[in-house]
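Batch job 17 of 40 flagged for manual review because the log was empty.
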Amino acid sequence: MDDEELIDQEMLEKIDTTDVITYLNTTPKATTRNWALFGVGVTEYEESYNSNVSEEHWIINKNANKDVDGYGLTSGPEQTCYKGDPVFEFIDDIRYRLKTGKDAESEVLEIDKYKVTETETSPKYQARVFKVCIGLDSRSREGGAGVKIKYSVNYKGDPTFGTVTFENGKPVFTAE
């Protein structure tokens, strides 16, 4: 390996969990989005991309051809319940009222703060908005550990890509 192929480790910067931020719209039926920070009571959040792969094996080849045709994003967080957290209260209302269909839908705003473009006034961060539906899986109580809920966030269709700036601590999304 020659010197040009080596990675300058001094230039590497580890991405922190606080550099990947998620917000949930807690007023999906209102004309103005109310983005609430997602993460209170959540110690792990994994997004599963569930790529849809098609395969075609041509008679003229020994090996198959594979293509990624799309994705079916989901996540399944477990959250310790905190009264006063707008995300928990929104999810808990879906649980309590056994909401379905449009009543269990909202939007998720994902921000990659490590992908920033500086501007004259404020930084712009790479972001995307997804429509989602939320399905409750369980609510549990464990002595000494409090109440927890598990639910799935199921992404619907294609995202809207754009950027986010922050005004008074609140995200403002601008579509591309």
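Reviewer: the log was empty due to a logging misconfiguration, but the result itself is present. The chain has a mean pLDDT of 94. Unflagging and moving on to job 18.
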